[in-house]
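Practice record 12: protein with nicotinamide-adenine-dinucleotide.
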Amino acid sequence: MTKKIAVLPGDGIGPEIVAEAIKVMMALQERFGLALELEQGLVGGAGYDAHGDPLPEATLALAKSADAVLLGAVGGPKWEPLPIAVRPEKGLLGLRKHLELFANLRPAQVYPQLAAASTLREEVVAGLDIMIIRELTGGIYFGQPRGVTTLPNGERQGSNTLVYSESEIRRIARVAFAIAMKRNQRVCSIDKANVLECTELWREVVVEEHRHFPEVELSHMYVDNAAMQLVRNPKQFDVMLTDNMFGDILSDEASMLTGSIGMLPSASLDANGKGMYEPIHGSAPDIAGQGVANPIATVLSVAMMLRYTLGEAAMAERVEAAVFKVLDQGLRTADIWTEGTNRVGTAQMGDAIVAALA
Ligand code: NAD
């Protein structure tokens, strides 16, 4: 059955990198019989410029009707003076909210060809392959009450609320265990159960949910220790399960272990496995329009889409193998270029990946 993909290039380098991902998807159709229907929409600054709205109605309708969404990036200095309600980032948040994308998957993988690009010693990160599963629609970023009030003595007081219901914890834990089953079958759940009651409940519910996944080895770690272990010995982790705020911080830390923001894809899934797929980086206005951006994070986002929403694991592996092959061939965009390798532009990298699809 043909699967409909909403393709939202966005702003800055978004259209450039998404164009390469489209080439890869077209090649999978033409050469390997994958049945996809691609339909493009405007989001972010592009949506605002055309319709005065970073998430135009037509784009939201397209995203809702599609089997999966592929997004480039949004934002840029041009739209920074706008009121927050119509800033490009609102388009992203709106999509997450309307599509109920509660599970954020962020792999941090170090390709052996790029291990020297990390700020950590090569032997610490070579072969690293972590998957961080972050709860994305609950926790302290959304909890009520929140705000800044003035106390009777005139002093201002700020507050936010860390809140998770049992069902919210259960569903994200289930995602983590199910994904661990497809990997090395280990989940480390991150909390601060020694101090925060909410995360004590988190730990209890994760343990309960673990009963349905006896093959998976479950461990728990306090978030402060996890932050330390990620730089001390990151290869000890397979799947890390986190709440919204801890995951926000730890996933950025983990991405930097790889040394290359242009290489990392991500997925945000709903309860039925529908997802939005995007590189973790932003719209890179400093290099937009120059044809030098690295399209690999976006191409690898297509691979995640094939694996997690479209059920096409073999196609996903095909794309990942093609990326591995072009790195082996010594091709590098500027962000990952080192002495002795072959510097290529965005389109050349995309073409090489297409050519390498075996
Ligand atoms: P950024 O990720 O866009 O760029 C950070 C640095 O990494 C820049 O030097 C950039 O040139 C480089 N870079 C990023 N992606 C690259 C790629 N594929 N190839 C080569 N180099 C790459 O972050 P920023 O500069 O903080 O933000 C720029 C804009 O992007 C802002 O408007 C911000 O709000 C937005 N943003 C959007 C998203 C998103 O759409 N998901 C995420 C983060 C930031």
